[in-house]
């Protein structure tokens, strides 16, 4: 390789390596802010890596699995409340898990159901309660035809809450 | 290998070589997309939770994967253009940029259309969506720089630097769903390991993916030929070619 090309190659490679290091450091420094949501256990104990805790009255997003049997609907309005637990594989629920109660007044998304992952945006209140203003369903990466899901024993009908 | 590659630094030889490839890519793409899209949109089974809406997967995922692959291809072309000062490498980077931008836009728009009924929102500033939006802006920047200078060599250099710097965004898009908590789900299909969907949903996806990939190849060949012609418009071989066309 002739010296001029070699020089250009070294310049470009060193700029690229330098920039990747900078980007890596920036992302590392921002990592807690890039997370879209808190997990329920992080509301109880603080963020996993930084120990950062959400303050009362702070506007946060919370993400977790809807605990089966915890969804309570108000008879006369759209008000609904449910409990969230940490997402983990394989999916399992335990009464001792740290949980957060979400209170919401509005229409739930199509994919909302018990055992499904959701992300709620709201204000943290006393007693691990979130007064949510927005509830979004988080879908997982698994796709399955109905027949297979029935074989696997998965509920596929949309329950009416 | 260098000996074998050398003739392709000549625009005329590359122009005719690309011209020979184009019909192959076009026909492969038409056949694969016809089979793949019919199979995917009409015959593949509906998802047990999302129902029919999941079919947008067959356009969204190929578009998203290709938007990143095209970028990597464009950056490699820009890199060789900068280091070895190959004019054709710059021309191919310029040919790829708008194709990539369109596929990024398709990925973003189909994603939003799926997100509204499934998640409950068109858009959310999570790591995956934001980094893909940045990819669109990078493409637009590269296109703008290619057109900002009269001198094509200078334009290639400026756009090339932006394209190479932007490569940092690619691993961020790819791993955003693993590094951070995002609303966007993890990868369903990957090169390694079993896809997280059943075989009768996965096969039509493969047809669609390769159909769109050959579509990109065909469109890029056409654009590449046009770039070569416009950059060499003063050369005798181009003039001879045009005279042939007019006759």
Automatic annotation (TrEMBL), chain A:
UniProtKB keywords: Cell membrane, Cytochrome c-type biogenesis, Heme, Iron, Membrane, Metal-binding, Signal-anchor, Transmembrane, Transmembrane helix
Membrane-side (Cytoplasmic) residue stretches: 1-8
Residue ranges annotated as Extracellular topological domain: 30-161
Gene3D superfamilies the UniProt entry points to: Nucleic acid-binding proteins
One Pfam family recorded for the sequence: CcmE
The keyword Transcription is assigned to this record: no
Annotated localization: Cell membrane; Membrane
Binding site residues for heme: 139, 143
Its membrane topology: Single-pass type II membrane protein
Record-annotated membrane-spanning stretches: none
Database matches in InterPro entries: CcmE, CcmE-like_sf, NA-bd_OB-fold
Source organism, top-level taxon: Bacteria
Cited HAMAP family: CcmE
Role of this protein: Heme chaperone required for the biogenesis of c-type cytochromes. Transiently binds heme delivered by CcmC and transfers the heme to apo-cytochromes in a process facilitated by CcmF and CcmH.
Family indicated by similarity: Belongs to the CcmE/CycJ family.
Name used for this protein in its record: Cytochrome c-type biogenesis protein CcmE
Encoding gene, per UniProt annotation: ccmE
From TrEMBL, chain B:
InterPro entries: Cyt_c_assembly, Cyt_c_biogenesis_CcmC, Cyt_c_biogenesis_CcsA/CcmC
Subcellular location: Cell inner membrane; Membrane
Membrane topology recorded in Swiss-Prot or TrEMBL: Multi-pass membrane protein
Family: Belongs to the CcmC/CycZ/HelC family.
Segments forming a coiled coil: none
One matching Pfam family: Cytochrom_C_asm
Protein name: Heme exporter protein C
Residues passing through the membrane, by range: 21-44, 56-83, 95-115, 127-146, 158-177, 201-224
Keyword Chaperone: no
Metal-binding among keywords: no
Alphabetically ordered keywords of this record: Cell inner membrane, Cell membrane, Cytochrome c-type biogenesis, Membrane, Transmembrane, Transmembrane helix, Transport
Cytochrome c assembly protein domain mapped to chain residues: 28-184
Stated role: Required for the export of heme to the periplasm for the biogenesis of c-type cytochromes.
